[in-house]
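S1.2 Input.
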Amino acid sequence: MSWLVTGAGGMLGRDVVARLAAEGVPAVAVTRADLDITDPDAVRSCLAAHRPAVVVNCAAWTDVDGAEEREDAALAVNGTGARNVAEACKESGAVLLHISTDYVFAGDATLPYAEDAPTAPRSAYGRTKLAGERAVLELLPETGHVVRTAWLYGAGGPNFVRTMIRLEAARDTLDVVDDQLGQPTWSADLAGLLVRLGQAAVAGTVPAGVHHGTSRGETTWYGFTREIFRLLGADPDRVRPTDSGAFARPAPRPSYSVLGHEGWRGTGIEPVRDWREAIAEAFPALVEAERGTGATGR
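S1.3 Output.
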């Protein structure tokens, strides 16, 4: 059973490819340079050539603020691109695992969002990702799996954790927002979940639809940064709480990004572990990626 991973040059895509390799699963990794998912003919030809049993679509426009200014360009990737991949999967019979986001919700809840909670995106990025979700679920009612994630970090790309590691060494204090609640999620943990989901989907033991791929537990960006400082051996009190008004952004950020995991019940698949346990294991590689190479981008 072979797999195809789009967006394989990104943070999550790299971890999915690595996890598949570790488990001995044959996989083809295609980066943006290899495959432009906005080109339907190219997508169709790629799947026809490789004939994967499972496609993991990690290709996406992830610049949240950029999407606010260039929604059509973001929609071409996140909406139309996702539709192109779903249509090719429908023709070839492949299972599709499509990555989405908490931004499809309004972000003003007080309890974790269930998989079937009403969507109401407040940003261009959220609207484009919701368009992709709808395309996948419409075209692949039996074999399409939408996996929403949030607050993703990893060693293979720029992210909040790597930024905080860098800033800890450069500043005496840091002001970090304490009015946004979410679930920090290690990309390697999500990759493991995706592999288990794809295997179960092929075996027919998990129904198609929407799944939530975030860590258990919850914290604020301020609380997350204090934990990062603690793991660095730095004084967490150097991190000072502030509110979102201190950091004006083109796109509104959700104040509540906590996703529920009830949908995994009865599937035989365990949700991702607690965020504290994950960051402790991930941390050495994150420090090495940021300080060992000096890299801050992909």
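S1.4 Remarks. The two ends are 29 Å apart (CA to CA).
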